[in-house]
Design goal:
Largest sheet: 4 strands, antiparallel
CATH class of the largest domain: Alpha Beta
Strand content: 35-45%
Distance between the termini: 35 Å
Shape: flat
Number of domains: 2
CATH superfamily of the largest domain: ACT domain
InterPro entries: ACT-like_dom_sf (IPR045865), ACT_dom (IPR002912), GcvR (IPR016867), UPF0237/GcvR_regulator (IPR050990)
Number of helices: 4
Protein name: Glycine cleavage system regulatory protein
Structural class: alpha+beta
Number of strands: 8
CATH architecture of the largest domain: 2-Layer Sandwich
Strand order of the largest sheet: 2-3-1-4
Pfam families: ACT, ACT_6
């Protein structure tokens, strides 16, 4: 089996997921994992699909037929057994919204060789205080001897500097 990672973007409308799923199914593919969302009137997502190696090129070609409705970019995923996740932790970040929060947190993670597995962010109205709140859930993979306590200590230092709360999720 070959793993393909699809990125999909287009103007939001009914039937986009169904159109992609129909093509994947018609080529013997299996929809494995995905993150899909409507953001500011656009539909965007990332989908992991497994397909027999001899069907992968035909699947790629069929997905190109969605052009005009949905832009689909196909990437070849890592071969099975090569991805490793020695130790994963999920961090929660919350604070008053301002430019640069994602840049500063991702830079701190990157500087320690920590890889982001999954990140979900949102801004919401702050109910009692007014203004906007920034919230993030970030799952990271710790490799190369990075210890959870050391990472939390570094992120707590950064959190005080950029005025957000960072905690280890339960």
């Amino acid at each position: 089996m070959t793993t393909l990672v699809l990125t999909v973007v287009g103007d939001d409308r009914a039937g986009l997921v169904s159109a992609v799923a129909d093509i994947v199914d018609a080529h013997g593919g299996n929809w494995e994992n995905s993150e899909l969302a409507e953001l500011a009137g656009a539909f965007a997502g990332i989908v992991e699909v497994s397909v027999a190696a001899d069907h992968a090129d035909a699947l790629r070609g069929a997905l190109e037929a969605l052009a005009g409705t949905l832009t689909v970019t196909v990437h070849t995923g890592a071969p099975e057994g090569t991805a490793s996740a020695p130790h994963s932790v999920t961090l929660e970040v919350i604070g008053n919204d301002r430019p640069g929060i994602v840049r500063e947190i991702s830079a701190a993670l990157s500087s320690r060789g920590v890889s982001i597995e999954r990140m979900s962010t949102q801004t919401t109205d702050a109910a009692m205080a007014g203004g906007r709140l920034f919230e993030a859930a970030i799952t990271v993979t710790l490799v190369g001897g990075v210890e959870t306590d050391d990472l939390i200590e570094e992120l707590e230092r950064l959190a005080a500097e950029i005025q957000v709360d960072v905690s280890l999720a339960d």
